[in-house]
C-alpha cells in the first residue's frame, strides 16, 4: 500500500479531525513539498491548517507551524502576497503570545526574511535577518546552530547585495 493510500485509509478510519490523521496529512504535504509538487502540497497543507485551526484554535503552536508550512508552499510557488500574509500573521501571534525575543518568534521572523528575499526585497530581508541574528547571538550565543546558520546566510546575502 502506498503512502497516499495509507493516509486516505488512516483519515477514513480516524476521521479527518483526528490529530493522528492530521499529522499524517501534514507529513504527506511535506513529502509533496520536498518533491516540488506544489499543488498537492498546498492542497494537503491547507487541509492541515484548517483542521488545526478548527480543533486547536488559531494561536497554538501546531496551528502556527501549519500556517508557516503553507507559507513555504506559497513561497515555493512564487505567491509572495499569500506567503507574506501568513508569515506576518504567525509573527504577530508569536510576538503577542511568546514575546519578541522568544526563539519561535525569531524563527518565524527569519522565515519571513527568506520570504522577503525571494521576490527581491533584499534590503528589507537583510535588515530583518540582521536584527534577528543580533537577538539570537544575545539569547543563544554565537556558536548555536541557528546563530551559525543565520550568520552564514546573512554574509551570503550581504555579498550578493
Automatic annotation (TrEMBL):
Q: Which InterPro entries does this UniProt record tie to the protein?
A: NLR-like, TPR-like_helical_dom_sf
Superkingdom of the organism of origin: Eukaryota
Q: What transmembrane ranges does the database entry give?
A: none
| One Pfam family here | TPR_10
PANTHER family listed in its UniProt record: AAA+ ATPASE DOMAIN-CONTAINING PROTEIN-RELATED (PTHR46082:SF11), ATP/GTP-BINDING PROTEIN-RELATED (PTHR46082)
Name of the protein in question: Kinesin light chain
